[in-house]
Amino acid sequence: MFKSDRENLIPLLMVAVLIGLLSGILAVGFRYLLLVATRLCWQNPFDIVGAATHLAWYVVILIPVLGGLAIGPIVSILAPETRGAGVPEVIHAVASRQGIIKHQTTVYKILSTVISIGTGASVGREGPIVHIGSSVGSSIAQLLRLSPEWRTVFLACGAAAGIAATFNAPMAGMLFAVEIILVDFEISHLSHIAISAVTATVVSHHFFGNLPAFDIPAYTLVSYREIALYGLLGILAGFVSIAFIKSISHVEDALNRLKIPGYVQPAVGGLVVGVIALYCPHVIGVGYQSINLILTGKMAINLIAIVLVLKLVATCFSVGAGFSGGIFAPSLVLGSLLGGLFGIAVNILFPAWVASYPAYGLIGMGAIVSGVTMAPITAIFTIFELTYNFEIILPLITSCIASLIIVKKFYGNSIYETKLLKRGIKIVRGHDVNLLRSIPVTQYMDREYESVRTDTGLRELIVKAQKSRYPHFVVLNHKDELVGMLSMRDLKNCLSDMVDLCEIIVAADIMSTAVYCLASNDTLETAFEVFEGKHISTLPVVDSRHRKKVLGILKKSNLLLAYNEKILKIRILQNRIK
Question: pTM here?
């Protein structure tokens, strides 16, 4: 185990290189597997749209349905964490699991995503690659027995490497890890993340060449008056982003309300995708073919709006039904279509001083990614690294920030945060919050506490209160189950009539039955939220499985002590490496 950052700077950087190398190799292998799976299902992996038009109608429907049936048991029984994009699970691992991802998750994620995309589900490959790379970083850090801090850093290294290898864009990968994955960030860790991203990019260049992921048009800002139009495009992208996020959530809720078993839901999503594909084969798969048609100006104008609507529907049913795959690529596809449609409109209205519609398609890609992920810097650099054209910076910033503002104003959460919130996981970014989030309440609770029975008389309660060092009593019934809390304030209200009431009143008559409790699997972050704004100093901690069995009590003073100890420990470590 490494002793200090300064003494082991070079070894830690070498670990970052190793993570970038392995993540890059896995990303390349993953892409080859996708090509094989797509070829088996659709015959031509480079022209799925054309291939689908030559297949019998029942085959087009049957392929995604069979894909859904194949992955159903994986995403509902064997590895539920592989359902959907994968990025929320990585964020959760950083925020609540101290950077630990299960090793077997990688295998299941690769298998389920290859089947999903290979059989035509409208999902992306970037989210799963992030999940795979993060798992590599986490596994290596666990094998080296590194601290939770470094497990988190190397998990982020793997995520950055995955994005970098996918887009040949090391800066975008690095910023993705910092802006989306890490809930708090130390600038000193940026070098490790950057090295992993660069290493993975070199691996990708070796196998696929130094080529952009799309057919990028030459971009020119025709007039500064266009900036206002790009701002308007960003506003539209923000509202489309909200519709996209909410629609995925609504599909998932609707399938659950209909009580469709989890292992069948992907097949239902596959049926919807297959039916749509009969009329619009552009919805099948990742959708890069549609992006290239927009960016080269080859998609028929009357088709763009149709593909935009149907691609959104197909993606919502694919992700909402449980297909394994990301939303980054579908966001790029929707952005290119929205931008292309907007570009056609402004070319009709202002033909003399606007660029061609592929330019607006390029900006739209960044705008939708910014709104859906609420990560504008990542969106800006992803598109910039595809073009390396500085003229695109001003339109990109304008559109991406406008989209972000709309989503923040009218919705408030990214698509990743939305999924975590549906599972009851609240991600609050910040170093102080993350300190509390990593500590279970059982670590600082008092296992020794004083309790009374519901039938304990007032006289005995007074005697116990005089001898007790606790300001509260836990009230238990004859089954030793929690039924209330009794405070000194409750007793004080009876003292004036002590003579008359001492033989009549028992604990059950004066205790508080509205008790705030903590479960044994809660963290100090949850405890802080419960304590906040309430005039209580003690919380009972109950068994997470048997909610009436008291394990101990947590004092507010112990919560503050835990926080201060963590802060002090971090400052001591920081001083040691200065």
Answer: 0.76
